[in-house]
Amino acid sequence: MSEASLVQAAAAGYPRHPSRTMADVGKRDPGEFSARQWPDWSFQTDQRRGPRGRVGVVTVASLASLFLITRVTEIAGGTSGALRSGIAIGLIACYGVGCLLAPRYGPHAPPRQRIATVVAMFAFGSAPALLLGSPDYLTDLTYAIAMGLMLLPLRFSLLLGFATAISQIGWMRLAYGEVRWGQVATLAGLTATLGTVIALNLTIGHLRAAREQVKRMAVNQERERVARDLHDILGHSLSTMTLKLGLTRRILESGGDAAIAPAVAEVTELETLARQALSDVRATVSDYRTVSLATEIAGSRMALRAAGVRAELPTAADDVRPELQGVFGYVVREAVTNVLRHSDAERCTIRLGHDWVEITDNGNGNGNGTDGAEATAGHGLTGLAERLAMVSGTLEHGLAPGGGFRVLARGPVPALELTPSTGVCPT
Fold it and tell me: Model confidence over 324-342: pLDDT tens digits?
C-alpha cells in the first residue's frame, strides 16, 4: 500500500472517531508545529549537509565554556572558603561537561532521557548558587534553559525559563533587599537569544529536510511512472509477440516439411529472445518499484493527517542503514495501516535508529488487527517477521507499557559492533 492508498484507506472509514469530520481535522494539521511536541532533530542525521547541522551546537557549547571559565575565576578569587569554593568549581566543571555533551547526544535521545538530561543540567547549574548563597549565580542556568528549549516541548521549557527568572528575582529580594536587574536581564536576554537561535535552526532544518523529502518523492513517483509504462506498454507487446511466435513455431512444426526446419529454428530462437526480454522488463519494473522508507513515512503522515490522528514522525530517514531502508518501509506501511484500521488511536509515533524502527500508538491495543484482548500476530505482522528474517532481523510487537500497541523492528548487528547502535534506543 503506497501513500496514496493509505490516504484513501483513511478517508474511506478510518479512524473510528465518529465525532470527527474532515473539516475538524483541517482546522488543526497534526503535522504542524505545536508547543506540545517534542523537538525533532532527526534532520541532523543527513550527512549531505556536512557540518552546518551542528553550527547551533558548537555556538551554544562555545558560549557556555567562555562564560563558565569567568565564573570559575570569580569563585576562586572569592572569600567563600577553599572547601566550598572547590566543591562549587567541581560542580561548575560538571555543568560545563553537560553543556558540551547534552547538545550532541540529547536531541536524539528518547523523552525520558531528555528529561533526565535537563534535570541534571539544572541541578549542576543551580548547586553552586545554593552552596555559596549567591542568587547572582542563577544566571548560569541560561544554558540549562537553552538545553530545555532544545530537548523539551516548548510549553515546558518556557515555563522553566520564566520560573528561573522569577526565582532569581525573589531570592535577590530576600538576600539583598533589591533586585539586580542587570543579572536578571542577562538571564532573560541570553535565554531569549539562544531560544531564538535554536528555534530558527530547528525550523530551517525541518524546511531543508522537507525539501529533500519532496525531491525524493518526486524521483520515486517518476520511477514508478516509468515502471508502470514499461509494464503496461512494452510488457504487453512482448507478451503478445511471445505468444504469436510460439503459435507460429507450432504451426511450422505441424507441417512436417524438412525444408522449413531452419525457419522453425529461427522462430524458436526469436521466441526465446522475446521471453528473455519480457523477463528482463519484469525484473526492471520490480527493481523500480522498490519500497522507500522516506516515501512510506511521508505517506503515513498524509494518511494519519487525513484520519485525524496526531502524528509524531521523523523528518528524515538518512541515518538508517541503506540495506534496511526497504524492509523498514514495509514495517512502517503495515504498522500505520493497522493503526488506521484497528487501533482507534489518537496519536501515532514513529522513531528511527541506525538499525531499528519503532511504531507506537495510544489506541486500544489491537494494532495487530486482532479482535481479542491478547496481542497475537496477524497475517501482516507475520509477513513482516518473515521479511525481516530474510535480512537476519527481528520483529517485536505487543501491548505498549503505557497502553496502546508497539511494533519494533531491528536489523542485524554488524559483526564489528559489540553493542547496538548508539542512536536513540527505544524504551
Answer: 888 898 899 889 888 888 7
The grid coordinates of residue 5 equal 492508498
pTM reported for the whole predicted model: 0.54
- DSSP class of residue 242 equals H
Q: Report the length, in residues, of the chain.
A: 427
CA max distance for the chain: 120
Encoded amino acid at 48, one letter? R
Which pLDDT band holds residue 308 (cuts at 50, 70, 90)? confident
Residue 347's H or E segment, with its range, is strand 347-352
Query: What contacts 196, CB < 8 A, 6 or more positions away?
Result: none
pLDDT tens-digit profile of 342-359? 778 888 999 888 889 999
Grid coordinates representing 91? 560542580
Q: Where are the domains of the chain?
A: 3-30+291-410, 42-206, 220-288
| Neighbour order of strands in the sheet with 394-399 | 310-312, 347-352, 356-361, 405-410, 394-399
Q: Which CATH number fits domain 3-30+291-410: 3.30.565.10, 3.30.470.20, 3.40.1390.10, 3.30.70.560?
A: 3.30.565.10
Amino acid (1-letter code) at residue 280? D
Q: Please state, in angstroms and rounded to a whole number, the distance separating the CA atoms of residues 153 and 34.
A: 8
| Residue indicated by cell numbers 526480454 | 277
DSSP per position, 265-334 = HHHHHHHHHHHHHHHHHHHHHHHHT---HHHHHHHHHHHHHHHT-EEE--S--TTS-HHHHHHHHHHHHH
pLDDT tens string 238-256: 777 778 788 887 877 777 6
Q: Look at the alpha carbons of 340, 301, 115, 47 in this order and tell me if their dihedral is positive or negative.
A: positive
CA distance 50 to 315: 17
Per-residue CA distances from 194 to 148, 208, 343, 368 (Å): 11, 21, 40, 44
Nearest to 314 by CA among 103, 33, 6, 43: 43
Q: What angle do CA 106, 124, 188 make, to 5 degrees?
A: 80
* CB-based contact 398:406 (threshold 8 Å): yes
Cβ pair 357, 336 in contact under 8 A: no
**Which cell numbers hold the place of 277?**
526480454
158 alpha-carbon distance from chain centroid:
24
Is residue 102 within 8 Å of 123, Cβ to Cβ?
Answer: no
